[in-house]
Amino acid sequence: MELSESIRHANGRQRKPVVVTDMSDREAKMSDQETVDEEEALIRSSDSEDGHPRVRNGIRGELGNVSLLLFLYVLQGIPLGLAGSIPLIMQSKNVSYRDQAYFSFVFWPFSLKLLWAPLVDSLYVRRFGRRKSWLVPTQYLLGLFMLGLSFTVDSLLDADGPRGPDVVTLTSVFFMLAFLAATQDIAVDGWALTMLSRENVGYASTCNSVGQTAGYFLGNVLFLALESADFCNKYLRFEPQEQGIVTLSDFLFFWGIVFMVSTTLVAIIKKENSKQQRSKRRPKEETQGVLETYKLLFSIIKMPAVFTFCCLLLTSKIGFSAADAVTGLKLVEAGVPKAELALLAVPMVPLQILLPVVISKYTAGPRPLDIFYKAFPFRLLIGLEYALLVWWTPSVKHDEGFPVYYYAVVLLSYAVHQVALYSMYVACMAFHAKVSDPVIGGTYMTLLNTVTNLGGNWPSTLALWLVDPLTSKECRGAASQTCGSVEEAGLCVKEGGACLTTLDGYYVESLVCVVIGLCWWLFLGKKMKRLQEEGSSAWHCRIHK
User: Fold this and answer.
1) What is the radius of gyration, based on Cα positions, of the chain?
2) Suppose 79 and one of 177, 357, 390, 462 were both cysteines; which one would form an S-S bond, judging by CB atoms 3.0 to 4.6 Å apart?
3) How far apart are CA 95 and CA 3, in angstroms?
4) Model confidence, pTM
5) In a 3-state reduction of DSSP, which class is residue 500?
6) Mind listing the pLDDT tens digit for each residue in 215-255?
7) Collapsed DSSP state (helix, strand, coil) of residue 131
8) Where are the alpha helices (DSSP H) in 397-440?
9) Please, which pLDDT band fits residue 273 given cuts at 50, 70 and 90?
10) Who's near 443: CB < 8 A, 6+ residues apart?
11) Greater confidence, 523 or 234?
């Protein structure tokens, strides 16, 4: 369960948040941050000429560039935050978990952007600018998609129609938004390393982290709070109303206008190829051919050690899939307000900032995956605790909502989950940095991060898909009727009966996932630990020797 994601990693990182749909989006974004940090380190290592360090002039002269980067990353986080909020809105409209599985594909582009990143780096219009050639049209398309969606999103989410919410269209549109945001991320990441001087390039990662987080917060937590009539009536209004202060269509229209106006200003005012941009104090960009890049990626993944490690990464998160992907939706189904869940992510921000700093002290040695191995069973046990939390939730609900102590338990559960999650994440990223071939470090790290993110995406999608088939329901109050499908459930209600759940597939999944996870930990986890004993020659790409 991930409070801030479905409230989506990433690449994050990349996320795909207790408002939870899955962890892949946040982890995707965190993985992106790791790659950016490494690129900056490489640039800083060359920040001298003739053995003499440069005179540093500070950040004051580049406040404009830093502000622009921060703003671009905020824009990037908006569609990601909105995509993370849609599963919670759909869950409140009683869509099936199979529909949620369809929509979970929206969180895949940030984990797959390595597939088209070489094209973004290699194909451009020189006179317009290497990064602006992709940034400007991508952001225009984002703005147009959001403006167009603002006029149709209410009908697409209409639960009173004959078929309920149009999940296929929603998935297609938000997948395109995520794809465009991932493409914009590639362009902005590349521009960040040349827009700033070498002495200030470290601010690029700060802009990435702060900007994406702020954008996600605006598009997810703030939107869900302002969209909720209950939250607005309870905390922000003197007289109750049927709707929240902001609707999804209003929010999309506003940010669509912001995208269109800001992109026009960037296209006209900001010059990528100015004399200042070509100064000696700024790192020069190297261009590698598209085919050469893909050949390099293939040569990396062919190495036995890398191939084994990738297979382990792709299977390591199966045991967490039910907890990460389904728990938040089950809490909403049990009546927990989605806005209240979203706001629980706010007090977690300081913890999420401090955890990587603390954990990195224990992963800095020669065996970082030992921490991964030790945290693994604790994260599995937290998955069982989440199942108990979902089972307990209906018993504490009363007419006025849920008591304060219930939210305290949810918050504590999420905090413990974050400790286990970040322990595994930081250990994994430390091992990536340890084994990556320094000659091609950026490409190598991005490949490993991509595989890590995919290892979280596909189990989450599968977990959502299997909830309904594993759930058993029976029709009570109407003879000879069943509840095996949506149509049959409708006939049951029409005949005066009611469909009651006799076995919830979520609990079946939770138990099965933990068993699979324990088997992975006992048999494959030790194999992952042994990879730390491989020498550097097993990891370095032979085409460079």
Assistant:
1) 24
2) 177
3) 21
4) 0.82
5) strand
6) 999 999 999 999 988 889 888 888 888 889 999 999 999 99
7) coil
8) 404-435
9) low
10) 293, 296, 297, 300
11) 523
How far apart (Å, rounded) are the C-alpha atoms in residues 487 and 471? 16
Q: How distant is the alpha carbon of residue 409 from its chain centre?
A: 24
Residue 447 in this model has a pLDDT that exceeds 90:
no
Q: At what angle do helices 441-470 and 321-333 cross, to 10 degrees?
A: 50
The letter for the amino acid at 161 is: G
Give the chain's mean pLDDT: 83
The number of residues making up the chain comes to 545
Angle of CA points 360, 365, 371, to nearest 5°: 60
Amino acid identity, position 274: S
Q: How many C-beta atoms lie closer than 10 Å to residue 44's C-beta?
A: 14
Other C-beta atoms closer than 10 Å to the C-beta of 515 total 12
Beta pairing partners, 544: none
Least confident of 269-283, 320-334, 394-408, 524-538: 269-283
| Run of H or E including 35 | helix 24-45
C-beta of residue 394 within 8 angstroms of C-beta of residue 334? yes
For the CA atoms of 277, 279, 281, 283, what is the dihedral angle to 10 degrees?
60
Output the pLDDT for position 20.
43
Residue 436's alpha-carbon distances to 35, 365, 414, 449, in angstroms, are 11, 15, 32, 11
Using alpha carbons, select from 176, 148, 182, 199 the residue that is nearest to residue 77: 182
Contact by Cβ (8 Å): 68, 270:
yes
Task: Using CB atoms within 10 Å of the CB of residue 82, give its burial: 0 to 12 exposed, 13 to 18 middle, 19+ buried.
Answer: buried
Token pair recorded at residue 414: 């999420």
Give the pLDDT mean for 277-297: 64
The residue behind tokens 């250990």 is 427
> Of 317, 270, 353, whose CA–CA distance to 454 is shortest?
317
Structure tokens that stand for 448 in this block: 């490993």
Q: Which residue has the tokens 């629980």?
A: 344
Q: What angle do CA 227, 79, 461 make, to 5 degrees?
A: 95
Residues 6 or more apart whose CB falls under 8 angstroms from that of 390 comprise: 327, 330, 331, 334, 506
